[in-house]
Amino acid sequence: MESPSARRCALLSATLAAVVVVGAGAAGAVYVTAGAHPGGGAVSSAASADAGGEAPVESATEAAVDRDALLAAAMEAVPVADGAEVSVAVLDLESGEGAMYGTGVFETASIVKVDILAALLLRAQDAGRALTGEEKAYAVDMIENSDNDSASALWRAIGAAEGLDAANERLGLTATEGGDGPLWGLTRTTAADQIALLRQVFEAEGSALDEASRTYLRDLMGRIAADQRWGVSAAADGTDGAWALKNGWLRRSTTGLWVINSIGRITSGGHDRLVAVLSRGTATQAEGVSLTEAAARAAVSVFTGSDDADAGRAASG
Prior knowledge:
Layout: H1 4-15, E1 20-24, E2 30-33, H2 67-75, E3 85-92, E4 98-101, E5 106-107, H3 112-127, H4 133-144, H5 148-157, H6 160-171, E6 188-189, H7 191-202, H8 211-221, E7 243-251, E8 258-268, E9 271-282, H9 285-301, H10 304-316
Helix pairs in contact: 1-7, 2-9, 3-5, 3-6, 4-5, 5-6
């Protein structure tokens, strides 16, 4: 089995393609910066002195930020019940910077419905056709209302776990495994893989999904039923179109405890971010929802300081 450290490296290499590694802190944490000013090279976040021993008034680049460390610190304030687990990943679509907290493989519950529809759209693309009327009806009900019968119909249409796994090879998901038989909700995944899936939906470059497929999926994720608008949307601002999401919830019969997950794109402070929160082991659904929302806010908070700094610089000219 791939180690947690290998999965972390895979996430960073996949999601932070625009980031330049510039050094390491005393504790071994890697610090990254989104790049250099035009005409200049990458510069370490460490303060440097000029020939006279005085530190420059302004660095050639913005100080590098360890987003993982910021997220770990933010998650310390998130209450997690004894025995519960949570993993969260975030990617800023503009800068390419991201962060991850927790490693572990989690049951998907209904967030796999995004993956099922992506697999169906890939099959339609390969055949050079649009979705049929019946497929569209199933897709709408599966994503907007989280209808399980529709999900089961499309799960069979894509070839169940074998079909999902084949599609995920093309979509760049390396640690997701389809559920056994008809049990699509017991597909297992990681937060890193869910960010990879979201990138296929919300980014054009490198996506196996064509523009029509991406637009279709994004539109459905932006029209979730009112009673399901929780989870990562809690980290979005109040503007129209500030979120597109899919949630999953499942009470395990073996333990009586809940799996509560939320994935999607949110807009906050004028920035679009992809967020994936996976959790399990809460005693109630409400407790799990609160955990996913708190984790989503913590994930977005790792960018708040730099957003404020950008706004301050713009205001000062």
